[in-house]
Amino acid sequence: MTAFHVMAGADNSFVRPAVRRIGIGDIMDALRLGWDDFREKPSHYVFLCLMYPIAGVVLTLWSSGANLLPLIYPLMSGFALLGPIAAIGLYEISRRRERGMDTSWRHALDVQRSPALPSIVAVALLLLALFVVWLLTAQAIYTAYFGEAVPASVSSFLSQVLTTPEGRGVILWGNLAGFLFAVVVLATTVVAFPLLLDRDVGAAAAVDASVRATLANPVPVAFWGLIVAVLLAIGTIPIFAGLAVIMPILGHATWHLYRKIIVPAEGEMRQPS
Fold this sequence. Notes:
The protein is mostly helical. It has helices at about 1-10, 25-40, 40-50, 50-60, 70-80, 85, 90-100, 115-145, 155-165, 165-190, 190-200, 205-215, 220-235, 245-260, and strands spanning about 15, 270. The two termini are about 15 Å apart.
């Protein structure tokens, strides 16, 4: 029953929440509302989100050895693929604020008591699997151009990647592959986690709703993805410190984006399981 519940939802039926069409103005309004949520208790959220810059520094230091040098950029950029997982607690804070409930930072941990936790874990595992496949793909692209040889140093690695035809090939195909992975993650999870926190519809329905939301709003969702990418890039400067502010704002904004895209429960369409 637990496995079935993960796929079908709390009442053993496949629920298809109705999706609205939105515009660029709705994206900007979601960001504004996310900023408002952040401003309520910014020190709490910065403290809560210090894990993001710390994780970024740890990943960089861990991969700075010669054997892992080719994975520094894939790890840093791929970290963004896991952003929807990292922001789950922030969605919960925005949900509580919307309902007039206590929004102390400790309530970010209330996710562990959510009835949809199995479904949330299922979608999180999907993202983790995509992250691993991305790293393997990036490594395969590097090996295709440079073979199995280990870079002698950071300077020699940068030189071969930035100044050689092979390096330009790695940059071109690596970024193209990364873009495709980012599109898949955006399309499958743009509203998945907030939806599961709000309604226990099951992992399959949450991913389905995200895909339908993307297909119904290709330009706004693409614009949202661009904003996320740009802000995350800015947040890495300097030494990932900006992520402690950028991540909570984006997390709160994602909740409000979900509210704009998904029609309230009264508008749900139900199909037999």
